[in-house]
Fold this protein.
Amino acid sequence: MTANTEPLFLHDPYLAWAENEGIPVTEDFVVNIHDVETKPWARIGARGAIVHMKGRGDFVSIFAIDIPPGGNTTPQRHIFEEVYFVVEGHGSTKVETTDGRTHSFEWGPNSLFALPLNARYQHFNGSGRERALLSSTNNLCLVLNLYRNESFIFANDAKFPEREGKAGFFSGEGDFIPKTPGRHMWETNFVPDLSKFELKTWDKRGGGSSNMKFILADGTMHAHSSEMPVGTYKKGHRHGPDFHVYTVTGSGYSLLWYDPKDDFIRVDWRHGSVFAPPDGMFHQHFNTADHPSRYLAVALGSIRYPLTTEKKVQFGAVDVSVKDGGRQIEYKDQDPRIHGIFLSELDKNKVESRMGDMIDETAYRGRKSA
């Protein structure tokens, strides 16, 4: 520190790093990755942007990786974890493992994958006409704020062979690990098409819900996917910050609130949309499409490695009623405005409700359940 330099005070090394990268930084409550402005990013040799959700908490953020037609990123390796969701385009990724082998896999829209920690990798756009757009949900903000040393993070020779998994994990193979509904796991490094992946029924989350938890590259980053059938919605719930929720299929909206006496905050979503419910804020997801709506949620702290006490509690209490010490609002206890809003939205889209077995709909505008 020179005599003319002010001592650091309430400094955030990650935010300073993000500003110095020279690419757009978007911050909002909800963002559609399709629409994010990107610019050339020297670090990766392609276009990029940084996306900060306002409810993200302290540990997780997003990179939008925009690879031009026929282009590729420069080889990368780093001491932070990423979970990739392919928003647009087709391409491939090459990964080098500690045994000297190179693994390549091809991805397309709605592919989901993660790379073993600090493995050397490179992305390629397989199209000569269209861009490839990948969303990386990652924990660089945690790692950079903890170590404050770019060389340690981006030029580290440490090896983590235990993170690589089976060779087939790079080609879409995986292991199903049965637990209880809502806690079933699929271990892999790559899911070719999340929109077609078989989920398992989780009735306690309501409305014919289904779900799968993913263990990707044996990482601490969490990912799960849930689906709502036509004419249904999930039960309201809350948790800590950093769950980044992406729309995979369908369309609809989510309502968020702290106090049910207040007005709801509404988030409309479609493919590529992402938002992060703030810490402790109740939220509820509604499918208004004429086909199932599926989403992907990514956070720090997995069902295998929860990392924090908050995540341990979350994975055990998310489908338990708040009246029993859990984090979920049962349909019979929800604000009556919620179902009325839902029926009005279905009317706009000419979709019939399938909630009649769970909620008495006869009181709503004289409408009978489907």
Remarks:
- The helical segments are 13-20, 140-147, 150-154, 309-317, 336-349.
- The two ends are 70 Å apart (CA to CA).
- Residues 336-349 form the longest helix (14 residues).
- The mean pLDDT is 96.
